[in-house]
Amino acid sequence: MVPLVVIRPEPGCAASLAAARAVRLEAHGFPLFEIVAKSWEAPLPGQFDAILGGSGNAFRHGGRALAPLRELPVYAVGETTAHAARDAGFAIAAIGNGGMQGLLAELHADHRRLLRIAGDERVPLNLPRGVSMEERVVYANVPRPMPPDLVALLRQPAMIALHSAEAARHVAAQCVTHGIRRSLLRLIALSQRIASAAGEGWGEVAVTTLPNDKALLALALQMCQDPGPKGRD
């Protein structure tokens, strides 16, 4: 079986790893990013109707500045983000399952002024007519170099799960640094935008039908029985 490598930061890496092993994938976790809180100042909550949350990290690392915003309901991109928001004391207005853009279709009629709390890398959004949004960056994804065990693993055919465009770019750069042959590796990306960020030269680049781990693992299960590319470069 071709191994699946998960590189997203914790606690997401551990969650993805457990889910992968639960469906009998050979999975290895190497968090190549560390989540670091950033200093920020919260706006007055009366200026907004709701919060847009694209990651649980915004609520786990938002710090004390989140406290005055707890009166605002949260639109969470998925269940994990919703869980983190509830743990931070927020009520949930809606939970999406098709990415941030799709979540905007779930807005209540009286929620027209949005506050987006996010990381330093975030997906651009097209706002519906009559909706305004301000953004606050509350955390950063700090990249880490590949450890020797991961470098050794990627010298053989493997699949890599990509949860962000930043991760795609970082993996590509690290493969150059360590002389890893991209043609031996297959990527599974949560969106076409993420896949495009990885560049060219990979053995295969596949995109999930939905931007979540369930779809990613289903695709990995389909791909893992094939030994994969033998390296054509």
Question: How many β-strands, per DSSP?
Answer: 11
Q: Note the beta-strand portion.
A: 15-25%
Q: Categorize the overall geometry.
A: elongated
Overall SS class: alpha/beta
Mean pLDDT: 94
CATH class of the largest domain: Alpha Beta
Low-confidence regions? none
- CA distance, first residue to last residue: 23 Å
Features:
233 residues; alpha/beta; Rossmann fold; 6-stranded mixed beta sheet; 8 helices; 4pyrrol_syn_uPrphyn_synt_sf; uroporphyrinogen-III synthase activity; 4pyrrol_synth_uPrphyn_synth
List the helices and strands and how they pair.
Blueprint: E1 4-6, H1 12-22, E2 27-29, E3 33-37, E4 50-53, H2 56-60, E5 74-76, H3 79-87, E6 92-95, H4 99-103, E7 113-119, E8 132-143, H5 148-153, E9 158-162, H6 165-178, E10 185-189, H7 192-197, E11 204-207, H8 213-224
Parallel strand pairs: 1-2, 1-9, 4-5, 4-7, 5-6, 7-8, 9-10, 10-11
Antiparallel strand pairs: 3-8
TL;DR of this structure?
InterPro entries: 4pyrrol_syn_uPrphyn_synt_sf, 4pyrrol_synth_uPrphyn_synth. The chain has helices at residues 12-22, 56-60, 79-87, 99-103, 148-153, 165-178, 192-197, 213-224, and strands at 4-6, 27-29, 33-37, 50-53, 74-76, 92-95, 113-119, 132-143, 158-162, 185-189, 204-207.
How would you sum up this structure, described in words?
This protein has 233 residues and is of the alpha/beta class. The protein has 2 domains: 4-32 and 144-224, Rossmann fold (3-Layer(aba) Sandwich); 35-142, Rossmann fold (3-Layer(aba) Sandwich), CATH 3.40.50.10090. The protein is built from 8 helices and 11 strands. The strands form 2 sheets. The protein has a 6-stranded mixed beta sheet. Helix 6 links the parallel strand 9 and strand 10 (185-189). The mean pLDDT is 94.
